[in-house]
Specification:
TIM Barrel; eight-stranded parallel β-sheet; 8 helices; 215 residues; Ribul_P_3_epim-like; single chain; alpha/beta; RibuloseP-bd_barrel; 8 strands; EC 5.1.3.1
């Protein structure tokens, strides 16, 4: 399948958010990646339901909502109602992960699990066939503009092997430090969805940046 690109709105200009949303609408990007941070699960606060709904009002592509929050279960329906079509929760934040994934699917959304850099992909073996996608964090979650963690390539290959062995159709998403220098290698390792924030929005031509990492 073709590589899917999800620009991270966390790196957009919040004072000109509609402008940046419309730029993504007119680009080759496939999704809007929206990082929701609570200041507890990760050491930063981004934005919440009202901003998600405001983005959805202007977005012409699906919203991929990444919940970097504690107790995500209590907000799943609210984010679906705010426009989320893809929802990922962190393995590290979910006591009853299978139940959470089933609830996301009941809401009619694609269900994903995100894992931090220190978390082993082997922890997903028992649930991999239930997942639409896995989001591998390739930086420590909480802030944009961080350096890509090189160990990510090995994690992608290991996860791809788990998916193949299980006969699953789970997609692999990479979030953090993605740019045109590592995009092709990530896809070769097994990734299907690339999240890019700083590289896109700080580029002199964001649409060109998206085209370059899409390949």
């Amino acid at each position: 399948m073709k590589t899917l690109i999800a620009p991270s709105v966390l790196a957009a200009d919040f004072a000109n958010l509609q402008r940046d949303v419309e730029m993504i609408n007119g680009s080759e990007a496939d999704f809007f990646h929206i990082d929701i941070m609570d200041g507890a699960f990760v050491p930063n606060i981004s934005f919440g339901l009202p901003v998600c709904a405001a983005i959805n009002k202007h977005a012409k592509k699906p919203l991929d909502v990444h919940l970097m929050i504690n107790n995500p279960d209590q907000y799943l329906e609210a984010f679906r109602d705010a426009g989320a079509e893809w929802i990922s929760v962190h393995l590290e934040a979910c006591t009853h992960l299978h139940r959470t994934i089933q609830r996301i699917k009941e809401l009619g959304c694609k269900a994903g699990v995100a894992i931090n850099p220190h978390t082993s992909v082997t922890l997903l073996e028992d649930i991999i066939t239930e997942l639409d996608y896995v989001c591998i964090m390739s930086v420590n979650p909480g802030f944009g503009g961080q350096k890509f963690i090189e160990k990510t390539y090995d994690k992608v290959r290991q996860l791809k092997a788990i998916i193949t062995e299980a006969g699953a159709n789970t997609l692999i998403e990479i979030d953090g430090g993605v740019d045109n220098s590592n995009a092709a290698a990530l896809v070769e390792a097994g990734a299907s969805i690339l999240v890019a924030g700083s590289y896109v929005f700080k580029h002199e031509d964001p649409k060109e940046a998206i085209r370059l990492i899409k390949g």
